[in-house]
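lol ok so funny story. i was supposed to be doing the assay writeup but got distracted and ended up predicting the structure for this chain instead. priorities right. anyway since i did it might as well share w the group, maybe its usefull for someone
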Amino acid sequence: MIIIELGSIQDIHGKAGRLNQLYHDFPIARGFILPYENFLKFLSFNHISLQDDRNTIRERIMKGILPFEKELLDYFKKNNYENVIVRSSASIEDSDSYSFAGQFESYANTKIDSLISHIKRCWVSQFSDSVMEYLVENKMMKEFTFDVLIQEMIDTDISGVAFSINPSNGSKEVLAEVANTPCEEVVSGTVIPHLYHIRNQIEADSFFSKDKLLIIQESIQRLKRIFKAEIEIEFGFQKNQFYLFQVRPITRIYFSLVDYINAEFWCSFKNNNWTLFHRSLWILGATRYKARKIHNEVTEDITLYYPHNQKQMRGFNGNQPPLDEITIKCHTDSDIHQYIQESYQLSKEMKELSSMICHNIKDNDYLNFKINLRKLIQKNAILNSYEYLIGSLGNALHDQLHRKTIQNIEKWRNDSSNSYFPIYDTIFEYVFHSFHFTIEFNLFKNYIHVQELLNLCDKKLKPEILMKRIIKRNEYGFVLLNIHEKKYCNKIITDKKVIMTVMNRFHQLYEGILMDNDSNKIKGKSTFKNGKVIVGECILIKDNDTDISKMDLKDKILVCEVTTSKDVLYLKKVKALIVNNGGVLCHSAIFSREFKIPCLMGCQIATEVFRTGDILSYHVDEEFVEKL
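and the output, tada:
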């Protein structure tokens, strides 16, 4: 007889394999596995042929003699098992494509006198008509094996199931169904459970506490990272002790993009003039090259462009923080210093690659140009992931970090050499002429996606097809998606229905930002408070590339997207800053605190509401600005 104790280093599949893999990292009831070899030995000992009809096989299994019965019962007694659950564990059960949910039998509250009978009944369940027909139809007979998992019975006060995603609409939330009955009754649908939607704001009740919901949420996040998939779990609580009973991938998720956009909470609204290339490159870095210490998914957002708006607009998913509590808690000042140094090193390597690419272009060395371009994009993507991580950590830990760390972040953030690499203009010109594009160069530069540039250079994408795409994007607009649904991650959508859906959502968002439905009043976040109301003439800058050195800023209230390090010399003249974007560590905030110039950040649409010449009143402590 072969017995594998849970937690052993063994290559096991199915339900038992997953629990065996997780045994030392999650609270899982102790137990052991009877692998398929024992069943084959049982069949041989009792001269049972798998070629017999199903009824005969089932009958002969139940009447068969277990050749290792005494050995198994001795093991059961020696390890002090008294009350167990006997569970089926087929090799392809709970797989990425097939769940076999409810197809096999499990027997709870099994004592030693019924152990052998229940093991046989588990074996018999693999020969049910529904299972056999399913295996034949999907041509899985050859790969099918069947273990039996035996675990100590846990009597739970509360049990349930939880999904890492809403499988009916793709919404990014943890769904939990909970009841004060055995887990099998929740799974089978014989009881009406309590339903919980676990998002950022956890809403508990007297039946299921916030602490328990947090345990479910954190366990789901950890398991998603381990299995790299959306998952479903079965669990139970014995008083306040959590137990994991089962983990399986979610095999079917029904996702409607339009429904998802309408259902999600897009809480921010920003204009920007990024090119599609650089925006898609940023998404590539933040998602594919996400730092190992980021435990949650990167915050979702949607970028919308339509021609008469001239600029892109972005809405951010307000139900997701940039970083989750687990990520924040596991970081220290030294981690941030290390990330900054690594980002400087990446910038240095990118500058070296830029020089090499210039030589490749000069020598018309296309092969090495293509190799170095791919390296450049990869390093730039990784650099973008550091930008996301350092910026988000700096905001989240701002009040806990040493002053030296804050200064280090501020210096790093204000160093434009870490974010601007002029080599891309040279690359676009070279590729544009090499592939004989007949559209305007600016269209090519503004509307090409990072993956399209790579595919074009690898000759996986024809220039004619790309030109049609670019012309369509320029004429009709597009939506660039950064959402967790893989099908739509970093994808461009030109479907009119999707574009109109996003436009309508953003219009609702725009209206919601205005305070008290007053189109002349906007709320934000002051970088510091001083008890003052500042009144002054507005000077508006809508384009980040505007040269402000020639503008009359003295005693004006400057309204802009966001300030940069090159603006410092001139900004000392203004009375106050009103900026669309930014957090507590953006350049505008740093400048504001350093020079004691009041600043209202995160106004989102200030550049759309106010105009040069308007008289503005900024209430610093109340954190809003209005047009008088």
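The chain has four domains: 4-152, 158-249, 263-506, 516-627. The longest helix spans residues 366-396.
back to the writeup now i swear
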